Structures are given as structure tokens and as C-alpha cells.
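Field reference: sequence -> structure
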Amino acid sequence: MRVIFKSEALVLSPETEVERDAFSAWRQSVEGHVFFFDGGSDKGGALLDLGARAEACREPINIVFDQGDPRWQPISNLALAPFNLMGRYYASVEAFWQGLKFPKEADRVRVAALWGKEAKRAGDGLGEVDEFVYEGATCAVGGHGHRSLMLEACRAKFNQNAEARQALLATGNRPLMHRVRRDSKTILGVVMAEIWMRIRDGLNRSQVE
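Structure field:
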């Protein structure tokens, strides 16, 4: 195996048929991986495989329903990921969130069955309100109580829906983001991402215990 030193790269060049076969198999198994040089000595050193670049470098993942890697789609609030909260069925977290805009229970039940963009548009045209009532308690829109309900809805979703839970855990320890063209006025994207990561941390702890 010929080794070529360059300022920005270490080049490996197999010279025999056996080396070419071995190198081909190795190359395919570590494509896209990050390596760390342990320092070694004048006699030699080792390049240690840290794994795939995205995980090794903790590259952020932007969770957006209809963009990016489809593996992360179940994490999105718009995803079809049924769960129950306070004895009520919801097809998606977005359905729960939009349903809070409606004062009538019948409308909330209707919206609860929606997901995707249909759920996102469910509250369009209702106008802005300062507060709403949920389970007998009055909450200020965008306030602590409102955000706490989002946390509880997301927690119920990931606890009850295996596909969504597996997708969230598959993000490992990579930072999550929620950057969209127009950020929410009631729950900022950075807050939404913090909720997902908080739930992910809890799920990871429960697996260890």
C-alpha cells in the first residue's frame, strides 16, 4: 500500500490486487466517516474511525415536515402520529395545537382528526385571541401554560407512538432545529426544538434506568 502525504490529505493507493480488493471493501464501509489521528510517534500512528460525519460532528437536524431527510418526518408536529391526551384522540400534535384556537368542543373534535398541512391550516381565518380555555383552565396565548400544553402533547405523542419515538431517538445527540420560512408567533422554532430535545433526553434516560 503506497501512502502519499499532502498538507490537506493522506492518500492511500493500493498497489496489488489483494490490496485493491481490501481497499475497495474498506472504502465502501467507511464512506462519509470522520477519522481522528491519535498523534502517534515517529514510528507510526493510527487513524481512528469516529463514525459517520453527521453523527461524529453533531451536525444539526432541521425538523420540517416536508423538507429534508424523510427519516425525521415522524418527529414533526404535522406528521400522522396518533396519541391520546386527557382522554381525547389526536391524529397529530398540530391537530391538538390548532384545536386550542376553537372555543367549541365540537370544532376541537373535528380538528383532532387532521394532520399535515390540513391540520396546519385548520385555524386559518379565526383571528387572533389573547387567551383560550383548556380543561377548565384559562391560558394566555403564547404564555407558559400554552407552551406547557405543547410539551405535554409532544410527550404523549412520543410515549405512545413507536414510529415517532424511534425517529426521535435515531437523531442520537445531534442538535435539533425548527427553522421554517415564517416562524410561529406563539411558539418559536427554537422553543419547539428544545421541547423535542428535552423529550429525547428523557427517553434516553428511561432506556438506561
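Note: The CA atoms of residues 5 and 42 lie 14 Å apart.
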